[in-house]
């Protein structure tokens, strides 16, 4: 009898100690409160617990987006980008899809460094902001996206100028010209255009004045070399004249170059 009573008591105690059923709604509210207090890691664990214990909500749009936001709040941009992209993949027409696309662009943008570094991350940010305009026209993030597109293009133009100047300083004039002319073709009218014209003119001029060697120095090639140098001088003059026409404040800086190039 005592044994039976003991077993009944143990069963009663076990029943009392049993955890209440998991409530995903309450857990979501708890996670939201943690988000409001910027406790991102705790909030993320709560959201992930919902995904684990309520399988029907594993790909719930709100939860997926909040998890991405926790990473972004912690400045873990690589992880955030993966989560925002996953959201877009699962919910491409959701009301918050344009926000997620905007955040994909921002994840790359937040990792931009100095102009002299590899521009791949800048190109990635530019591409994602452009995707936002293409995929979600007239979204609430359109104006912001356009602003960041302009910034990214400015940075890419500045990078091309940086590389062009690098080649110029190394006296690799053909490479400098190629880079600078590419810059002016792809980014016409951008703030760096003034410097691009200036260094293109200098590169052509100094290229025309450089000593020739190897096969180009042979007697049979002298006419060819002379024609090339004449063309380089003409291109130098053209760039300097265009520079002065567009930016009169550069007149004094390049007047001596123009005078020299115009002298037969």
Q: What's the end-to-end separation, in Å?
A: 124 Å
> Which term fits the overall shape?
rod-shaped
What's the Cα radius of gyration? 32 Å
Q: What is the mean predicted local confidence, pLDDT?
A: 90
CATH topology of the largest domain: Serine Threonine Protein Phosphatase 5, Tetratricopeptide repeat
Name the CATH architecture of the largest domain.
Alpha Horseshoe
Major beta sheet, specifics?
Answer: none
Order of helices and strands: HHHHHHHHHHHH
Number of helices: 12
* Share in β-strands: under 5%
| CATH superfamily grouping of the largest domain | Tetratricopeptide repeat domain
Indicate the CATH class of the largest domain: Mainly Alpha
Strand runs, count: 0
Number of domains: 2
Low-confidence stretches: 7-17
Question: Would you mind describing this structure in some detail?
Answer:
- It is a single chain.
- It is built from 12 helices and no strands.
- It has helices at 2-17, 24-36, 40-53, 61-73, 77-90, 97-109, 120-135, 142-169, 173-186, 193-209, 222-246, 251-262.
- The chain folds into 2 domains: 26-155, Tetratricopeptide repeat domain (Serine Threonine Protein Phosphatase 5, Tetratricopeptide repeat, Alpha Horseshoe); 171-264.
- It is mainly alpha-helical.
- The model is unreliable at 7-17 (pLDDT under 50).
């Amino acid at each position: 009898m005592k044994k039976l009573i003991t077993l009944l008591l143990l069963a009663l105690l076990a029943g009392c100690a049993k955890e209440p059923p998991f409530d995903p709604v309450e857990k979501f509210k708890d996670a939201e409160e943690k988000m409001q207090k910027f406790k991102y890691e705790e909030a993320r664990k709560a959201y992930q617990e919902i995904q684990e214990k309520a399988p029907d909500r594993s790909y719930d749009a709100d939860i997926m987006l909040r998890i991405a936001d926790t990473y972004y709040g912690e400045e873990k941009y690589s992880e955030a980008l993966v989560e925002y992209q996953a959201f877009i993949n699962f919910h491409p027409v959701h009301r918050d899809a344009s926000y997620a696309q905007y955040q994909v662009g921002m994840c790359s943008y937040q990792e931009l460094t100095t102009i002299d570094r590899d521009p791949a991350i800048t190109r990635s940010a530019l591409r994602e902001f452009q995707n936002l305009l293409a995929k979600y026209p007239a979204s609430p993030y359109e104006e912001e996206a356009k602003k960041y597109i302009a910034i990214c293009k400015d940075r890419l133009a500045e990078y091309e100028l940086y590389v062009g100047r690098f080649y110029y300083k190394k006296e690799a004039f053909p490479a400098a010209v190629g880079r600078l002319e590419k810059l002016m073709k792809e980014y016409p009218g951008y703030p760096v255009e003034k410097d691009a014209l200036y260094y293109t003119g200098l590169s052509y001029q100094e290229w025309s004045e450089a000593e020739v060697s190897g096969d180009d120095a042979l007697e049979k090639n002298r006419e060819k070399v002379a024609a090339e140098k004449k063309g380089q001088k003409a291109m130098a003059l053209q760039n300097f004249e265009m520079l002065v026409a567009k930016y009169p404040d550069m007149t004094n800086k390049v007047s001596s170059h123009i005078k020299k190039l115009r002298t037969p």
